[in-house]
Amino acid sequence: MDALRQKYLEMVGAARDEGVLEDVRLAALGKKGEISLKMRELGQMAPEVRQAAGAALNALKDEIDTALRAKKAALGDAALDERLKSEWLDVTLPGRPRRQGTIHPVSQVTEEVTAIFADMGFAVAEGPQIESDWYNFDALNIAPEHPARQEHDTFFMARAEGDTRPPHVLRTHTSPVQIRAMQAQGAPIRVIAPGRVYRMDMDQTHTPMFHQVEGLAIDRDISMANLKWVLEEFCRSFFEVDTVELRFRASHFPFTEPSAEVDIRCSWEGGQLKIGEGDSWLEILGSGMVHPKVLAAGGIDPAEWQGFAFGMGIDRIAMLKYGIPDLRAFFESDLRWLRHYGFSALDMPTVAGGLSR
């Protein structure tokens, strides 16, 4: 034990950088390290010998580990001192010119969407991001057994011990805002509901928090034809093209009946997305006629009124329009990314004056 202690303490003391120190750690405490191999030999010893040897080996292991940590901290401090010597700042020098900030693409696209729908008579409705189970699920005709109501898909808020009431959730869509708007305003109504939503998902095309905009229009004689016209006009204005072609595919959403996924004609020629031409189709949103149960939950008589609803991801359509390849970059606060994709603070989008630069 004394020989091992002296050997590794000397090696730790002689290490001049963290790479060498890591080699010492592996030689002593790694899976195949000398002390680790000694620990494995304990099982072959007699019980009375194993007890004494085990205690000694554990003490040696702790001593070497403490020495390694202390040396690593010392090397880190020394490296920081050297770095500070080379990166000192002369505060008497003139300041750097003030850089102009930029508008985040999500904020820009939200303003563009708002401007387009405002031109078609839609008001903006808002609601809380922490919602009750009723507003987020029950009022939208989402059954208790629906997968969206499970913990693998939804963020549930913690409850006090003994509280048997349904839990609150971080809203999974902005559809609860539609219910609140119907309850507050009644029918007829035309609103969009942009805002943050939360789902338990994370990859190149999904994030736990993202931005969504949903639309709702209710009147006595609204039909799918009105929905199609509104979406075509929106896509034409948003993507700033002369013609668009939409394809409606039958789908199922608990809160609309009938329901349809909406694809837009596009091409990927040369790796560049072009809207309104080509032989490819790209899914951009979901839509449908508002389910009678949802109208009733909003305090509107489904025997007198009907309407349509739709929803799309603001981050997704921003990626499509401005050629942004990775959704996660929206939330990384990289100044280089913001300078590249950001917008001038004075570049306010309007339908008449142009939406984008």
Helices and strands in order:
Layout: H1 2-14, H2 18-29, H3 34-40, H4 47-86, H5 105-119, E1 123-124, E2 130-131, H6 133-136, E3 169-170, H7 175-185, E4 189-198, E5 209-219, H8 224-238, E6 246-253, E7 256-267, E8 274-275, E9 280-290, H9 292-297, E10 306-313, H10 314-322, H11 335-341
Parallel strand pairs: 1-4
Antiparallel strand pairs: 2-3, 4-5, 5-10, 6-7, 7-8, 7-9, 9-10
Helix pairs in contact: 1-4, 2-4, 5-10
What does this structure look like?
- With 357 residues, the chain is α+β, with helices and mostly antiparallel strands.
- It folds into two domains: 2-86; 105-341, Bira Bifunctional Protein, Domain 2 (BirA Bifunctional Protein, domain 2), CATH 3.30.930.10.
- The protein has eleven helices and ten strands.
- It has helices at residues 2-14, 18-29, 34-40, 47-86, 105-119, 133-136, 175-185, 224-238, 292-297, 314-322, 335-341; strands spanning 123-124, 130-131, 169-170, 189-198, 209-219, 246-253, 256-267, 274-275, 280-290, 306-313.
- The strands form two sheets. Strands 1, 4, 5, 6, 7, 8, 9 and 10 form an eight-stranded mixed β-sheet that branches. It has a two-stranded antiparallel ribbon with strand order 2-3.
- A hairpin with a 6-residue loop joins β7 (256-267) and β8.
- α1 packs parallel to α4, α2 (18-29) packs antiparallel against α4 (47-86) and α5 crosses α10 (314-322).
- The chain is elongated.
- The N and C termini lie far apart (73 Å).
- The mean pLDDT is 88.
